[in-house]
Protein 1
Amino acid sequence: MDGLSLSLGEDAFNKALEAYCEGFKDEPGENGDSKRTKTDHLNVIVLNIHRGDFVDYTTLISKYLGPYLTNENSYIRARSTLLLAELLERLPDLPMNEKMLKSLVTFFVERMKSDYDSSPACLLALKSVMQNKSRKELLLQLAKTDSMNVIEYMMSTMLTAHHVPALGQSYRYKIYDNIAMLVEDQSYLEYITSGDTLVKQFTDAMEEEKDPRCLLLCMRICRLILENLTVSADSVLKIFNVTVVYFPITFRPPPNDPYGITTESLVSGLTGVFSATPLMAVHVVPLLLEKLRLTSSEVTLVKIDSLKTLQACISHYGVNALIPYLDALRHSLFQHIVSPEEQSIEEEALSVVSSMSRELAKTYATFPLSSGIDQPGSPWSLFTENLLKQSAQEAEKSIDSMLGRASGRIAGAIAASSAPGLNRAMHHFIPLLDRILKKPDGNVTQKDILEGKALSPTQKTATLDLLLLLLNGISPDVDFPRGQNPISNYLDEILSMLMEIVVRKPETGESHKNLEMNIHSSRRLAVQGLEVLISRPPSPLLSDDQMQLVIRELSSGIKEVAIRSSCMSALKKAASVSPQSTKGILEETAPLLLQSVEQEMSVDEPKYQSWALTALSELCTVPDVFDSVVPKLLNLAVVESTNEFSNSPGLIRVLSALGLIVNSNRSYGAGLKNCAESTSESKSIGMIDKLLKGLSGRIDLDKTMSKSLSESCASICRTVVQNIDEETQNATSAATVKLLLSTWDEYSQSEDKYILVETIPRLSLSLGAILGSVKSVDSFSGELESISEILLRLANERQHIGPWAATACAQTVAAILNKCDNELLSSLSDKILYSGLDRQGNKTQGLLAVIEDSQRDIALRENSLYSLVWIFKALAMRSKADGLGDKFVALLHHECTSIRLIAASSFGTVIRSCEEVLNKSSFAKESFLFKQRFFKENFVKLATSLDLPQGCCGGSNGCSSKKSSSGCGSSSSTHEGSGCCKSDPVITEITPSSVLDSRTATLFALTKMLQHVPDSFILNDIEKVVPVLVMALGSKFVNVKVSALSSLWMLVNEDVESLEPHLGTIVPLLLRLVSVSQKHDTILVRAADRVRAIDCLSGIATSLPYPQIFPFKKTIGRGIMPALDDRKRAVRRKAVECKNLWLTLQH
């Protein structure tokens, strides 16, 4: 700072003062000074004043700043004034008395008048005074006690000291900012005695303002003046005249506007001015009517802005201010609705009609309506009543014409606006609609239609559309006593019209086809009308008898395909409206649907059962319906007398429906508790008990049906157990354990192969769903060893019970183990992994011991490894898998290929989310960030085992990762496929019989883990991961390629730059993958995987700079050609998009 340090003392203070006030009077930069230097000088001054050792405000001004403030040089005066302003802002807590404040305010105001150059600094100082809490209190006290009104004194000077329109933008902004601060603070407003004077001064200052930042402030000030101060009509006119020139707002912000000024903010500001006071109505409404009368084709936006402004002003003006214009507004709005230039104009006009009707209705505080609302000359009559009459007349002339339909939309807008609006709309239109619908509409002649003696299909549809518009005006939020709803007087007539249409059954046959379609279309609309009548809360519109009648007809209607969905939608809403409607559903709808289900239980391809089950599933979201329907559906699946499953094709369909019902009622704890409790409990559904007994019985099903049955039952059991209280969970799990042990004992004693091959596989999924979904295993902790031993023995019978059942057994053991406390976990895991005793006390080998025993049968070792994978996952989630990771890494080098494959897949299994068990929904225990720790630990082990070279292609071809003129993917390449990809030894014939050697198994383990790990983990280790993915993509083993694709696709989207050095290898490998022929079944690459590979190629084209991808343009253009003839349409479509993308690449 030119030798001046931030030091204390009078000498340092004087030097800083002099430097600040005089040091920059020459051209900027001439003395080597900068903005930072100015700040340094200011900091020294502030520091000395803040310490207060030798200077305060009084001493500062009289002794130190005096020569500078009175200097003949205008620059020095301006700088010293700015210094004083800066000190007021930087030292807000510095003591100041009323006398000192008055002197300062007077000084700044007078200086503003007499010294133009010092004016910006004066404005800054006054703002600091007004903002600071303690100084504001002194200022208000001064205004209260002093003869001079200091508030008006400051305000008047700021607006009149100089000709504001001629000042610079920043200067004007400071003035407006200070004025806004005064007029929006109620404490300051008390001392503004003359609003008219302020209006004159401000409108003169604001005249011809064009800067959007200043304009926003000006509009806010105008609005605040009109809202908070008493002003005359002449002052309102002045504000209108000075702001109307900006209507409509045509400002469009420049791109990347740093100030954030938007068209919407300016429109809102101007609308705020126009709606600030009812006195504005006399100026604004004629202006808007004039704009609406414009006929030029280019005024659409003007009309839309005018309508939006009118809508915003209506509620602020009130009825009295709008009375002189109601008739003119009605004519204008009607024309803009029935014959608009654009659809958006009609929509805005309808919004205005709704707002106006709502405002007029406020004058009638109660309903039924006060007398006189429809009397000629009343505000309501001038606008709403006459508009309804006019609309009804046009609708009666031709209800299906554009004019008639637009008139109906007017009636709908008024009906939705308020209770009086709905009542009067019904009064004018319901008799009209009734007359129209009573006309014949069957086999009628065109002559009868033209003469008005008959009804055409379009006229009937338009009539029902209008009726629906009126009914949708019924508010679902406003309650009325029974019989006093706005439509009560017309309810019977409306219900009669709708029911007559719904019950009408059309004649069938080819000659009546068109008529049949028209009748069904009308019936669907009528059902929608009934849906409104029965579903509008809070209080039901219909009586109990009427509700029963409607539900009965809707229930019978769901048998008809033409109106089924409409009827079902209405019934779903009716189910929860009231006790009466729920009763109707239980008495009319549910029995009908259950009958349809029961009648087609033995049918392979049912006509009604599927939709009946879907309908029941939707209705059962209501607790009362759930309690009634679920036991009846369960009895259709499980024969009550024998507790055996019904041996019919409809069994799986019913169980699937029960699964949907249970899943949609997760929050209905009482109902699910009844499902879980034993059938011996009173009022219990006993669903789990019945399902398990059914699964334990003898059923003649093929393997596919048996698996479907097991999966359906398991899904139900899992959902129920996860959503009941812990006490019920414990009782259910205890009963389940008892069933497992008894079933196993029965098998052990009888050695009945049916139990092993049929019963246990069916039970395994449900047993796992129950035991794996409980919060705690304490209720059966004494049986844990027995359970684990039985389930693991069953898992080893994979060839007999099937892979899915064996997996379920292993998952159940893992889920139980995961929830044990630390002591029990350690004990049980040792026995499972190494050695223990069976239920007869015989010593057994643990899973690891079996796998490592070379004398054991290979099938048994494979089965043990399948089970060990899930134990590994359970322990890893608890961070208790010490040493197991090393064991699995070692198994990747096992002599047996199948062992290597299972071990490689296990790394993905451990880290991926499982839907059945070991997840949050099933209350699994999971240590903090276990996935991240597992990934970190095992990625290093696997990568070390893989011995990955440091190369751009992961060692697949030995090229260096450094970019060069011949490096892979180099932007300076001048030929296609340059560098390592030119003679890539990895691109070999892919066959499904490729041997999974140890290196490939390790690579497979890495890609499986990367496939399921969160993206953030990969991105954090991007430099280590990319070579692995590139190497995997070049593997001969197809599964390795496919598992690498998902991670590669993520990198293309998230961090494609990391792939750029490897493009020379990646691009040919992706092309090879998408062009593999499947005609001779040489390889199984799913269409979804081929699509993903093509997406990667497309993503590279859209994400990297042109110079980096240009070398591959022709390569991809040729290489993608085989995919254009792919057997799957999705692949062909993606290939076309990719080819076009690369062909149209431009610099």
Note: Residues 1-5, 26-33, 366-370, 950-994 have pLDDT under 50 and may be disordered.
Protein 2
Amino acid sequence: SSHFGGWQDSAQHSVPMAPQMSKVAAAAAAVAGTAFVALPSQGTRSSAPSSGSLRGARGSSGSALGSAPTIAVLGATAVAAAALRKKDSQAVKATALQAFENELGVQAPLGFWDPAGLSSDGDAKEFYRRRVVEIKHGRVSMLACTGYIVQEFFRFPGYISPSSEIKFADIPNGLAAATKVPAVGWFQYTVFCGICDLWLMHQVPTNPPGKLCTRLFGEETTNYEYGFLGLPGYLGGKAIADPEVKKKKLNAEIANGRLAMMAIIGMFFQDGLTGSAWGDWANYTESPLRAFENELGVQAPVGYFDPMGLSKDGDVETFRRRREAELKNGRVAMFATIGYMVPEYFKFPGYLAPSSNLKFADVPNGIAAITKVPAEGWLQWVALCGCYEFCVNTPVDPAEPGNYGKGKLGYGNMVLGITAEPMQDAEARKRALNSELANGRLAMMAIVGLWVQDGLFGTPYGLYTGSNAFETELGVQPPVGFWDPLGFTKTDDVASFRRRRYVELKHGRVAMFACLGYIVPEYYRWPGDLSPSLGLKFSDVPTGFAAFSKVPLSGWAQMVAFAGTVELFQYVDDPKRPPGDFENAGFLGVPNSYIKAPAGTKEKKLAAEIANGRLAMMAIIGMFYQDGLTGSAWGDWANYTDSPLRAFENETGVQPPVGFWDPLGLSVSGNVSDYKRRREVELKHGRVAMFATIGYILPEYWRFPGYLSKFLDIKFSEVPNGLSAFSKVPALGWLQIVGFAGIVELNVYNEQVNDEPGNYGAGFLGLRSIGFMNAGIADPEVRKKKLNAELANGRLAMFAIIGMFFQDGLTGSAWGDWANYTDSPLRAFEGELGVQAPVGFWDPLGLSADGDIDTFKRRRAVELKHGRICMLACIGYIVPEYFRWPGYLSPEKGIKFADMPHGIAAIGKVPLEGWVQIVLFLGHYEGYFWRQDPKRAPGDYEGYGFLGAGKNFIFNFDPILFQDPEVRKTKLAAELANGRLAMVALMAMLFQNGTVGTTGPAMWLPSA
């Protein structure tokens, strides 16, 4: 018993160091303890047994250890204890990660992410250490990325090593610098990093990760902490007091550091593989992926795409196996996508399973059908697929994945016994398989999308009826509404949403200024010197990218300091105000501006600013591209001589006014056969669309006599026009249509003449394809013109048929009156100002789809203002041809009105003071005179009458007022119509002026 008691004491002392044991485990331990202590018999003194007696006890049949029941109990208790320990261990591992879910660095959209399970032990110290290391690595990587970029535009002057006569300009960028920097330089780097890590940037364990201080001798007298942006305390750096703000800043630094770590690794790879820090991947000639660049499925615009590196081993057999599997999956996905659509319009008559009394009409569409189809049906499908996989689809040549010798579209040797002639032309076969691959890839994406939509909304074509916490927040505007394709807001974190929103505002403001900075220097430059010490004038600095290398280092330092001051001290977010509404900034975010948004309009102004900023961000990216590719901020695309699209500038279909147009870059590979195939497909689609458009129009005036289906007693006159005909035409009719189209596709339009896309030798309008003999058009120029005209008409027809589909679907009739579209939210504005014949209410972009009256009236007022300005601008283009003001525009500069050129050329001639006067004049009208009263019609300002003219401190005459509200509405409507015409006219004048280069007779009469 003393041994047992001693074990108990030991166990009790060990309890705090291990997970709490259950009562069952404790009991099992107690029973197991008896196995090591033989119970004394009656009359025997209880004493500790000797080692010899224990050895004898082990050999005795009557001992506790040797008894069978005791062994059984021992085994059972050991198993129970082990199972409980395992369960407790799994529970600890499952919950260990929860300890770090609110730690620094856990951010949306990933949240806590530890795929390698480094934190599975729940050790807080290890987690803290790893977070500190991550922040350090991120900071180093951000500096490294900056070091890769800056050297492309700026190098320090002078010598990096005077003793070795090595200049900074001699050091190459990237990895090549490793062998150029002398050993002493590397030694300095190492010493500097070591000093920083050991003494200057010390992490105190009680501080948050990333909050550093010094670790020097002298303790508090010499040591200091670092403030915001790493400024030391003795230089005025102050730590961020608010813990939430501090955490946000460190989180942002962690996120940027993670991005920088990925970026620097990518730069290292690109540098190492291509031989240059910004090298072209075409220089990576040793890539194992080059083996597959000409294989089936490598198509523009992506080219060879293997982001997971599945083909990096260069194994041709494995590559072809995967390609074949991709083709098969694509074929299945195409059938599956069709299978999602067809049941919406047609279902087989009769029974799917007569024994189960299950009709085809009873089977729902989409995922819901899985549980409805009986087991025998699934077995039949599996058997059919297995038959195709193992018996039918036998490869003809292993070098051609997907070619099973079954002819075009692979419809030969099907279950129905159809045979097909294999495609003999190797190039045609490759093109067809490439097309099938592309369509299969699209179908795989489509079927996944249909499944997700079906699973989320409960129907294959269901609409999202849920909501989001941010649907009413600032920046959510029509026509897109709330748009978050990357799911940044799926956590419903209001603080993160707010931060992203005001960051978007800042970026938009910068982009708007950048766009202005691209445009203004084309017409105006500041006088004087940009840098007197360097003798650099503003007029010497080019616009666009070329200015990077021209502006001196001190100028960049000033820009960075200015932007930093605004960011840190002016644009300070206040949670009590809307995002982007900073206390120290006025209208449009101008620092210290006295111009404030009127009460009640602040959020509208910010929303408008967000929209304009988004447009500006897109615009500045476009300007960067144009500048980089053409060598000039407003460079002519004709200067982009390296464009692969030049190969197609004289091909069929390239016509004015657009010329060669390929916004998706489908032709960037310069592959002529791909280009011609797409052109051929476009012609075919255009021809089908032209017939479809005629088919929408003709039945309104004429129908075939007799029966469409005598067997079903359906006459042609009974088939409705448009989409309603889908469900009326019997299945055999659709089969005939598909069969006819297939015959034309495979047997008539199967060989091009003279390698001209769309020329199948079928003559004008393809008459030979429907039985009319036609020799075709012999003159190649006339033939090209005809094909070009057909392309243009086909493009128009494709748009037309889509419009007809929409009109038919929304109004219930092929030529339905839009008045039948009773669900339209636009009905709220049909009686508003500006809704006039012949167009009526016209809103093609759906800006008024939300039915917001206030927003509609604001846009109408803005339209009136723009129209008034454009009417004046049009007059300003015309009047100077006949009359100029006498005297001086600027007496100080000796500029007469008669000296001013007309049109666009005047922009660079008007002095800066003149532009300031124009801006102030417009600002007074916009901000003070033309104040919209919600009780009055848009554009009807109190005290201002006809054409918006009225008495104020600028003009002193009485306005022409209309007391009759109907007359006033008529005048405003007329003004709107004239303003719309003036906006279009002014744009045409600006284009004509910019293109012709004059405002004289040649602008109005080119023959002059």
Note: The CA atoms of residues 38 and 136 lie 63 Å apart.
Protein 3
Amino acid sequence: MSAPSFSSFPAFTTFPDLDPGPSTRTSQPAEDKDKSKDKDRKRYKKSRRDDDRESDDERRKRKHKHDKHKRDSDRTEDRDRDRRRRRSRSPTRHKSYGASDDERRKVEEDRRYKPIESEVTHIRETLVYFTDRKGDPLNVRYGGLHAGDVPKYHPVGWGRKVLGLSPGLSIVYRGRGGVEVALPGKRKMPELTDSRVRRMLATGPTRRLLTSSEDKFKYKEEDGFLRITTNRPRKDDQDYREIELSKQPNLDSDLSDSSEESSSSGDESDTTPLTSLQATLKELEERLAAKPDDVPAWLSLLAHTLTTVPTTTKNATKARAEITVSVLSRALSAHPSNARSKILRLKYMKAGEELWQDGKLRSEWENAVKVDDIEIWMAWLDWRVRTSGEILKSLVEDATRVIRALDVRQDEVGQLRVFWRVAVALRDAGYVERANALFQAQAELLFHTPSTALNLPFEDQLNSLEEFWDAEVPRIGEPGAAGWATWEASNRPDLPPPPASKPTRPDPQIRDPYSRWATSEALADRTRALPIRSTDEDEDRTDPYAVVLLSDIRPFLLPVRSARAQDVFRRIWLAFAGLHIPGFLASLSPRPAENTDDRWAYAHFASPPYLTAIFPSHADSTAGRITADAQAGVLIGREREYGSGFGPVKSWGYGTIGPLDNLGQGRWTMWTAEDVQGVDVGLVREIFKQCRAAGDNTDWDVLTLAFEAAVSLKGAVKVSKTLLANARESLPHWAAHARLECLRGRLDDARKVYQTVLATSSQQRPGEGDLWWDWAHMEWLSRNEDAALQVIIRSSGVAGSGGIAVLRAKRHFESLLMTDLLRASWRERAPWIKLAVLLELLTSSAQSAMTLLDFYLNALEQGSAAHESLTVASLAILYDHSVVLKNPTPPALLRERAERAIEKYPSNTAVLGIFLEAEKGQGIWGRVRATLGETAADGTGKEKDLARRVAEVWVAGWEKGRWEAEIERTRSGLAAAAEDERTRGSATLWKVFVAFELRAGQPERAKRVLYRAVGECPLVKELYLLAFGPLRASFSARELNALGDTMAERGVRMRVGLDEVVGDWTEGGEGVNSKAEEGDLDEIEARARELRRLMPY
């Protein structure tokens, strides 16, 4: 780097050439110089020896005399030098020399350039930086500075100063996490990560402040005033009343008071200080002693007791289980009503699984199922599925036992939940054809039972269904299927079976036999889901499980007939096919908050498209490596980039958000293009087509349109027109069609629909409020506020415009909501509330609109579906007003409401999306981390469902370039989920955990996680296939063979035996196929060595 140039600095060519002038010293020969040097050296050595001999006093005297002589000689030399300088500068002396012009010119130039030199020196001292216009091109190539590179400039103050800060502040510590700025000269401040600070925080308090039992205030109040004492002496005159002698004090009373004070102070000093946790436990124990049947108090006692053993400690699982068993055993025996509490029973049994032997565990489960609750029965069935040895045999016995118990209670929805769990267990174990055959047979019973078999006993119906099944005609879910009833009405024609799907072959470039076998098994399970016919010429016809007989699935078929059961069944089939309906699973329980079926039902979170969407791309995850740019030598931090707050995880209460409702600036609906990736579109379309009930199918048709819109918006509009041809008077169908036009961006077509349908408004037709709200909302988002205001006034039945019309419209909405629609269903009241709020927003302010909305929100029960729906609606309106339309609004208004909403509904990802959108640009991750943390405000652990866990994994990559910094936090969250009894047995969670470790570049960690996953979920085939596929490099052939033997012992289905594919292949390539692959292996090894040589670039 060249030196800086200044216009005022003179060029070097302007300086005169200086000649060596006459010297006053005479030249001395070289030999004489050498001799004199030797003499001086000898004299110096002799003086050193003499100095060593002399005493300290003599040395001090001689030194003092030498210093004084030196000072005198220096003064003499200075005087001589000044005298010579004055003589040389005198004009008479310059005249006496012949070459005086050059010296005079030099003196003048020195005098002229002396101010310039001082100015340059001052500029150099005050210059902040030097300009490096070229920069280092390797930073762009490799993404940052190399650790060994040294910058070509020196920072001001050697890197201790920060541009923009006060000069009195400097950097006192620089670490990996940032820098610490403080006053100079101060030592490094302690941090929370220091060992000394951690020890101090871990220790309990050694003293405490005790309040006095007598005086609560420092100053006593007298006649409404506080008499404040002072220590300064007062010179007031003595009051005449005090001249008299005071009465003698009562010595006995004084002695008693002093003794009481001393005893009380002694008691207070002897009291052992209690921590906040100990005080909380003491309070809970007192509450339980007074009311032993207080179940929430028992749960709070358990939660606070478990905080003494963090999940990250060694053997935490067993220790926490022992604590749980100890506390809950007390709770169950404390009161007879506690023994029938299902939440206490379930927690007690989950902890006992970690401690008890098989005999005791089985007997405890028998005691638990005596409560006869659906949640306990589902937990018992899940335990049996995870611990049974022969899945096909034990599943029949266990499922039929639960179905019979629920049939006595006539719980059809509970029986369908058992049916769903059986289908998932069969699919996880590899029996995909049998699981899909279950749904096909049950759909024939529910939707296509012949009229001649309706009144027959259920066993006779199954016998008649078996004849239809053995005919091998197309069944529901297959193309060309007409149904069992049509087949019977047509005199049982001999129809050809549907064409079998062609088998897919794995990639021929996969050389490793283990990886090739795993890929073949995964492709077959995904593409050959439906059972084949016995007459099909297929390579799988030798597989005994590819052809499914009705006798194989007959024990699981249910005798349900109600309309509610029909609607629940077809939605269960959609969820099993991969179309997740948010909130539907929890709605199947009488108390949705206690439903834990998401552990096995939410398998779509672990599908390849979802895993791709959950984790950020490689470019986004590494974008933060360059955190600053340099402009003229000054580091400028880059602007933070964020993704959309609305991620791939969809979770909210059932009915909170409609299938075609759109949130965010993009198209974020219940189902998007990412949600239908990996779904068998043909099968889902057949389900929608062939599972139509005899009654009202409005909601089912709206779901159909939502699915078609996720596949293709143009195709969805065509399907909508077909449905409208058969339901011209249905307002929900017209509303769905108009929303499709809005999603396509054709607002004029949607406006024509609204104008035509609402031409004759009566406010009495069901579904009309949704049309008015959709119309006004569309005009508002298109930045046409006047048109939106006119639509709202028109919906109220008020003619005209202006302030009078607005007041009349407000009065109309108030009367409508408080009288006419007070007892109406929530779906009818919600759009009119939103219209009233939007009217207030357009005519007043956002604060007044939220005040009006809170009035209706406070009238609803917190935690209900209506309360959650209106909470999301309030956030959506405020988000559209401030973020989408960019109207001036205080940012704290949306942020504070989003924080309160996410505390009430932590698993609602729509609320989470708005919360993240409100946090954009704040630069503070504290609120986001507190939301995603594992500890609640009272210090206890948070209980999170599976959707919340997966959403937190996605949030780590929400800010671009921050994913690598959040790896440890995400790993700790997944580790806590793997230890939590709520999600420990979820195969989906373990798949996400393994995928996360692979994405983080930790295959050995992923291997250890996989072994734990196989131990928790021993009958999930996809977990085993991970070792043969993505983790193949971490497993040896011996380990893979052992896993294959374990699969065979546990009854996990393998379409082709592992030994048939591997053959004589060995790990070192010494088998039969090793010679053919020797050249490829050498090339791969050479490339691997070259990549290792080029690391880390």
Note: The longest helix spans residues 56-89.
